[in-house]
Predict the structure of SMHD1 protein.
Amino acid sequence: FGIAAAENFVITTTNRKEITEDNFSELVQDGVTLYLLQSVDQMLLSATKERIDFLPHYDTLVKSGMYEYYASEGQNPLPFALAELIDNSLSATSRNAGIRSIQIKLLFDDSQGKPAVAVIDNGRGMTSKQLNNWAVYRLSKFTRKGDFESDHSGYVRPLPVPRSLNSDISYFGVGGKQAVFFVGQSARMISKPAHSQDVHELVLSKEDF
C-alpha cells in the first residue's frame, strides 16, 4: 500500500470499528469491506460502494399478498404501506433527548428522478451494517435473534401509550420492503449515524432486480 515503515495506520470496518488481533476473526468475514486509514475518525476522501447479495426472506413470499388482502377486505392498503415506512422513523427517534421530528413529503416533480414519497427523521441513524441487514431480511424487531446487527438494535418495547407515539405499528416481518414496492419501484435510504461523520446510502430498485 505504499505505507512508510514509521507511519501509523488502522484498518476498520465501514462502521469504523478498528480491526485488532482480538476481534479479527469476528469482524473480518468473506465479502466484508475494510478501510485503511490514518485514524479511525479520518474523513473519507471519496465515496465507497459495495454490492449486497442475498436471498429474500421467506416472508417475502408468505406475506406478499398482505396489501391485496386489505383491499379485498374493503380497506385502502395505502395507509398500511405508509405506516410501515413511518414505523422506522418512530423507532429511530424513540430515544431522542430533544424534539422528535418526522416529516412525510410527497414529491411530484423529478427531483428524485421520478415522483417519490420521502420520510425524513432526526433519529439515531443507521450504520452501513444496519442498512445491509434491512436489505437482507427484516424479522420482527421483537423476535430478531442471532449475530446480525439489527436495524432496531437496542430496541425496547415501549410502555403502553397510543400506538401513534411508539414504533409498534408494524407487525409484518418484511413490511418495510413490501411497503416500498407497493408504493413505487425503488427505495433509497440515506442515513448518518449519530456521533459519526459517515453518511450511508442504500438503493434497492426493481430495475436492478
The beta strands are 10-13, 34-37, 102-107, 116-121, 186-191, 200-205.
